[in-house]
C-alpha cells in the first residue's frame, strides 16, 4: 500500500476524469490520498472531495502565493473548515520567495497565523518552503519545541537542512522530482534521510515523475517515486511502500495518548483505507507526519 501525502485533486486539471483518477490510484494500491487546499475555496472543495471518495482526506489552508489576497475572514474560516470530518492537517502554508506572487511580509504573517491555528487545533502543518529555508527555520524555531508537527512538502534542500528539520520533529516529503536524471541533491536526501522520517507525494497535477515529465501528474504515479527511492537505497519497493505508509497511529486531538481503541471501529477498505472518518479521522489516519 502507498499513500500520496500531497495532491491537489480539486484543481481543474482533474475535472474531466476525477473518478478515473481515483480508480487508477486504487488499482495501483495507492489507498490514501491527501488533497491539499491552497485558499478557502480550494479548501472547501477539498472537503467536498473527502465526502465523495472514501480514500481521500484533506488539508485546509492558504498557500503563500495567495497571501496578499487573504483577509481576516479567510483566517477565521480555516479553523471552522478544519473541524470537518477527514481533515488531517493545516496547509498548504509556508513561504515562497522564488515566485514572489505575494509580499514577503504578508506571506510571513499568514504563515505564523496558520501555525497558531494548527497549534490551537492540535493538527499537523504542511509546509511549503521554496528559497526560504532560513526564514522558515527561524519562524519554526520561535515556537515552543514540540508545539508543532508536520511535513516539509516537496523538500528542496540538502541533507543537512533535512536533518535540521528532522531534529525539530518534522517529516521530509519526497516528490517525483527525485526521478529526474539531474536530481543529485534530492536523490542524496532520499538515500540518507531515515525511512521512519520520510513520506512520499506527487503534488499532482504538478511535478510528474520521469516517465511522465512535462505531463499531468496524478496519484498513481507515486509508484515511480517509490521505485526510484527503493533503487537508490538498494532495498525493495515493498519495503519503501511499507516504511513510508505504515506508522504508529497518533493520539492527537480528541483522543488520549496511547489510546487507539477507535481505530477498529471504522470500516476499512482493502489495504487499510479508512471509510467515513469522523471527528477523529486525523488521529486514525495512517500517515507518517501525524505521529
Q: How is this structure best described in words?
A:
Helix 2 packs parallel to helix 3 (72-81) and helix 8 crosses helix 9. The protein has an eight-stranded parallel beta sheet with strand order 1-2-3-4-5-6-7-8. The longest helix has 18 residues, at 104-121. It is an alpha/beta fold. Helix 4 links the parallel strand 4 (87-96) and strand 5 (125-130). It has ten helices and eight strands. The protein starts with a strand and ends in a 7-residue tail after the last helix.
Overall body shape: globular
Determine the number of helices (DSSP H or I, runs of at least 4 residues): 10
CATH architecture: Alpha-Beta Barrel
Q: Which CATH top level class fits? A: Alpha Beta
Quickly count the domains. 1
Oligomeric grouping of the chains:
single chain
Q: How many strands in all?
A: 8
Structural class based on helices, strands and sheet pairing:
alpha/beta
Low-confidence stretches are: 248-291
The Cα radius of gyration reads 17 Å
Which percent band covers the strand fraction?
Answer: 15-25%
Q: Which homologous superfamily in CATH is the superfamily?
A: Metal-dependent hydrolases
Spatial separation of the terminal alpha carbons: 18 Å
Assign a percent range to the helix content: 25-40%
Describe the strand arrangement of the main beta sheet, using strand numbers.
Answer: 1-2-3-4-5-6-7-8
